[in-house]
Amino acid sequence: MATSVRVAAAQMTSVNDLSANFSTCSRLVKEAVTAGAKLLCFPENFSYVGSKSGNSLAIAEPLDGPIMKKYCSLAKESSIWLSLGGFQEKGSDDSHLRNTHVLIDDAGNIRSTYSKMHLFDVDVPGGAVYKESSFTEAGNDVVAIDSPFGRLGLTVCYDLRFPDLYQELRFRHGAEVLMVPAAFTKVTGEAHWETLLRARAIETQCYVIAAAQGGKHSEERESYGDSLIIDPWGKIVGRLSDRTSTGIAVADIELSVIQSVRSKMPISQHRKPVEFWRSASASL
Ligand SMILES: O=C(O)CNC(=O)[C@H](CS)NC(=O)CCC(=O)C(=O)O
């Protein structure tokens, strides 16, 4: 990784129209290129948000289908890496999709994919009831990959609430930058979004890039928004002035910040993972 490299996180309000969302993404790619970013991260469901969550089954496609081909061409034409967080990938039968985070390089090649592990089956207090598992197959592979922006850890949205995954990414897979594309609900976002993201950055000493859906997608659906880039000390280094507007947040990833935070506070040497204290207490 270069000593400093500029990245961007998109914030958008995707709708139930594939071509309208692609136009928005193309415009944001141009903005990111103009800002000097080498990587642009898009939120969960960047290419489509149905008025009801199960609606997205109808537009699910394989990774070599026409939708993903267009995004690969977009990356290639603009010579920029794209993190596409939460693509509706066709599942193993017609009633399931996979919620897949796709990483495309600046030559338009898919470098890595990760399918969301933790599915959002939640009765949101004061909000709607979600049952993502009714139409989604959970992934079960932890995915980290080297890139010009450091070693990236791929996650999606609700994964954010499960710190074990991020511990695994940092301490077993060597992640330096954690990506959390999301479509958080308004209620849970207000209560938890920034706190959870900053906690993940601090406890793993990683950069966190969190691209978010924000605003009203339809009469029925609204997302919290607030795309953030956070440094390994937990400081917010990239944010839009408005939580729900469409645009990009830009920040520089500095190798020296990762190194300095980690060497001054060497938590990788101090940590006592669960296997350690379980075997210690067993011998009492
Ligand atoms: O279903 C779709 O169309 C798109 N998928 C989503 O919006 C997903 C699953 S329903 N949303 C979340 O994971 C919200 C998590 C969240 O809000 C929290 O953890 O608080």
Automatic annotation (TrEMBL):
It is an enzyme of class 3 (hydrolase). Keywords: Hydrolase. Its EC number is 3.5.5.1. Pfam families: CN_hydrolase (PF00795). One of its GO terms (molecular function) is hydrolase activity, acting on carbon-nitrogen (but not peptide) bonds, in linear amides. The keyword Coiled coil does not apply. Residues 5-255 form the CN hydrolase domain. Coiled coil: none annotated. This is Carbon-nitrogen hydrolase.
